């Protein structure tokens, strides 16, 4: 049942990616050049909805949060690799697969790059594990946990800030 729900969720996410036009290479490049705000609006909306949904399900007892430890070295290295790959390919992992499903064959190069990058990472992982990936270990933390408050006031602040941000991006254009 979990696999089926994952499949349904994946199709729904792909549908939303397609309908919002973030699968288009032009939108990806426009975002990289800070000329088209479509992708950042999509991402911000997804984060806000996801934040509310996850904590609502957690509060209802439907799910348990399973946190991973925060390692700054891993976050910085992963962010750099992700960002460089996205800038070079013009697609992130989700949008490349969606673009290929839409018939955009040039997205195949991004997927090949992802697979090669994953293979290289798997090979160097043992040497990175005890070095850069362990730097800045803060353990399993959350913003509500660090501040010692319920997540809902923090979510409310993020929602207000997110709506303000989305309104600002609307004024900037697509």
Number of strands: 2
Count, helices: 8
* Category by helix and strand content: mainly alpha
Detail the poorly predicted runs. none
Strand content: under 5%
The profile of the biggest β sheet is: 2 strands, antiparallel
Radius of gyration: 18 Å
Order of helices and strands: HHHEHHHEHH
Query: What's the oligomerization state?
Result: single chain
Total discrete domains: 2
Describe the model:
Helix content is 72%, strand content 3%. The protein is mainly alpha-helical. The chain has two domains: 18-67 and 146-174, no CATH class; 68-141, no CATH class. Strands 1-2 form a two-stranded antiparallel ribbon. Helix 5 runs antiparallel to helix 6. The longest helix has 23 residues, at 107-129. It is globular and about 50 Å long.
Topology:
Elements lengths: L1 H18 L5 H8 L5 H22 L10 E2 H18 L3 H9 L5 H23 L7 E3 L3 H5 L3 H22 L2
Antiparallel strand pairs: 1-2
Helix pairs in contact: 3-8, 5-6
Task: Characterize this entry briefly.
Helices cover 72% and strands 3% of the residues. It is mainly α.
Characteristics of this structure?
174 residues, mainly alpha, 2 domains, 8 helices
